[in-house]
Design brief:
7-stranded mixed β-sheet, rod-shaped, two-stranded antiparallel ribbon, 9 helices, alpha/beta, 301 residues, single chain
Length: 301
């Protein structure tokens, strides 16, 4: 006898006979004919290789072997009930895993608040986070390694790309980080152009270098790069030391005693944060729940 011989449907009929007591009552409860019930139980006995029923007057009763089979079958039925419940929850978007790739500053600013909200509203949904730069995030999304990618609109596929659906989340302002003693540290909404002669700190390459250069060029000047750094901790430490100034996304700004975050005026640049999924997958319940939570987190900023 093998596990494949355990026919769930026939085991359910055997259990119903135990509970109902007669073949006729079992047939009525299962919307079957008495002959069909008898035939199914006969076939099950052949499959298992043990007698399941014995005559008892004009009725039948379960053998000891049948009771043994049912003791094990109950564990199977219980597990199937749990599976049904989990599948139902999954179809309702209440459970499942959603894999998210996100750029570094989006993780604490958007992903973490979204995960916290989901833990309360939909605790069955598990979010697995992977930090990735924009290009890598879309490679992961396209390959099926993640279900959702957070990136910047400037580095995302266009809205016309048939592989992805893009969801705008927020416009993140870029503030300028100044040393505490800088002449413009207390100024109200200075223009970016007023900082054209400053020493700038930004990465030597990559998205943030491109964003800084593009913002300054849009304001009418090419920034003089005094120092190169990619991490915000290093950049702000150098600003604090008076080594230069830097554009910092508001999502990434962290309090530092010797740094003043100054909101720029009319030429203030922004970066647009978007979420993307493989086209059509936004209708999957789990992905939809995560997108909703990300929208709410973005709206609260």
């Amino acid at each position: 006898m093998r596990a494949t011989d355990w026919d769930i449907k026939k085991l359910a009929i055997l259990r119903a006979l135990r509970d109902r007591g007669t073949v006729t009552a079992t047939a009525q409860s299962l919307l079957m004919t008495p002959s069909a019930v008898s035939q199914q139980l006969t076939n099950l006995a052949k499959q298992l290789g043990v007698p399941l029923l014995e005559a008892h007057g004009r009725r039948v009763r379960l053998t000891d072997a049948a009771h043994l089979v049912l003791r094990h079958a109950e564990a199977v039925f219980a597990q199937l009930e749990r599976a049904d419940a989990e599948l139902d929850a999954y179809l309702q978007g209440e459970s499942g895993e959603v894999r998210v790739a996100a750029f570094s500053t989006a993780v604490p600013a958007l992903v973490v608040p979204a995960v916290r909200a989901l833990r309360t509203a939909h605790p069955g949904i598990a979010v697995r986070v992977r930090e990735a730069e924009a290009a890598q995030a879309y490679e992961l999304l396209s390959a099926g390694d993640v279900d959702l990618a957070l990136s910047l609109a400037a580095h995302a596929p266009t809205a016309r790309d048939p592989k992805f659906t893009r969801v705008p989340l927020l416009a993140d302002p870029l503030d300028v980080a100044l040393p505490a003693g800088h002449p413009l540290a207390g100024a109200a909404a200075p223009r970016l152009a007023e900082l054209a002669g400053e020493h700038w700190i930004f990465g030597g390459s990559g998205p943030w270098s491109e964003i800084t250069r593009a913002a300054c060029e849009a304001a009418g000047f090419v920034p003089e790069q005094a120092h190169s750094a990619a991490g915000w901790t290093a950049i702000l430490a150098m600003v604090e030391a008076g080594m230069g100034i830097a554009l910092v996304p508001r999502m990434a700004a962290a309090g530092r005693e010797g740094v003043v975050m100054c909101a720029l005026g009319e030429d203030r640049p922004v970066r647009h944060v978007v979420a993307a999924v493989r086209r059509g997958s936004e209708e999957a319940p789990g992905v939809s729940r995560v997108l909703d939570a990300l929208r709410e987190a973005a709206a609260e900023r």
